[in-house]
Hints:
The structure is a homodimer.
Chain A: E1 6-11, H1 16-27, E2 30-38, H2 50-57, E3 61-66, H3 89-92, H4 104-119, E4 123-125, H5 141-154, H6 156-159, E5 165-167, H7 175-184, H8 209-221
Parallel strand pairs in A: 1-2, 1-4, 2-3, 4-5
Helix pairs in contact in A: 1-7, 7-8
Amino acid sequence: MSSPAKRAVVLCSGGLDSTVTAAEAKAVGHELYLLSVNYGQRHVVELKRVPEIAAALGARRHLVVEVNLQAIGGSALTAAVPVPKDRPNKEIGSGIPPTYVPARNTLLLALALGWAEVVQAEAIYFGANVLDYSGYPDCRPEFLRAFEALAKLGTKVGVEGKTIRVEAPLLRMTKAEIIRRGLALKAPLHLTHSCYDPDEQGRACGRCDSCRLRRKGFAEAQVPDPVIYKSADL
Amino acid sequence: MSSPAKRAVVLCSGGLDSTVTAAEAKAVGHELYLLSVNYGQRHVVELKRVPEIAAALGARRHLVVEVNLQAIGGSALTAAVPVPKDRPNKEIGSGIPPTYVPARNTLLLALALGWAEVVQAEAIYFGANVLDYSGYPDCRPEFLRAFEALAKLGTKVGVEGKTIRVEAPLLRMTKAEIIRRGLALKAPLHLTHSCYDPDEQGRACGRCDSCRLRRKGFAEAQVPDPVIYKSADL
């Protein structure tokens, strides 16, 4: 009898980073359990792509958990605060941006941890990155290590001596490196979506921090960006 | 000008412990922000009482966040696993019971942390208890301290040097002590609900672990229990 596949829960928003993260988990032999969280984000359109991404990657399961974070508010991604546009790249990486969602990554990891415990996964894969979003406190490596320690103390599997690792393979990659890595792994980049503020047809604005970082990344990687932008002149 | 009231987010399920916890937060001068989480628990009836509990305690706000943890499953409280009945008291406190919800308290605290950051609360109050539920890993003091450390690393306020404390004032109290403390603080115990498996009319079963602990607590405190049980002979 062959040994059972190693399972990984992958937090997958349908964005570029989380899709490449899922491809990384697959590349090291994990059976994929893709977890999407609908927390009322403006850019919920990106979640619509996850079933196709899951199919393209041969994921074992895809689960969507709904949480109404709008009730809590406090962020440009969940409340009536404008998403910043056309910020110079040097500003994007400095300070905590208004798109920071209070305790969002703690919540996403908590949900991933619960599912990881239920399906007996040995790792959680998370597309955190410290270069592009140095302003988000809950993307830092020390935060991820603290969550791993918490997971060990707060779960039945942890008490039984097992560790659920938190893997963030893109943590120190530039966007261009992530794109090149995604292409090398044959990740379905054409299905991914990055914009924080898409229009009603789901077209990317091209001007929010996330679009600017994506466009710069594709330009640096010298690869055409498959995303459709609202303005033809972008 | 008087200084602004110190704010606390209190995780309040409508149960006995969380209601007394809220009364403790009020007793030390906090303005109360009661947070209830509807995670698809069987005993969601208890949440119905929270608006009345909030009014009785003069809470500033009451917020309900919805999360469909049934999608994740893995617990007698959220999935089609039977709730144990009539277990001897010595068994209730040993091992991890089937009513353990994977990573539930990590999730509850993550939501409380997000709201605490938005409303600038200085503390989260949580009705964790290690005596009655020694089997739940995510009620232990070391888990709560680990969460505090995580909160410091993973939030904007933490990066700015502020600490959001996690207070668990009932941590080492017996159920009888909690009941006596609640009476001393004039907590609205008559509005609280404890049963894991109430009937359609919301009447407590009297036989699940939670009912048994509650009944034993009221008996030891020598106070009548205001809850209505399904069987008259309990």
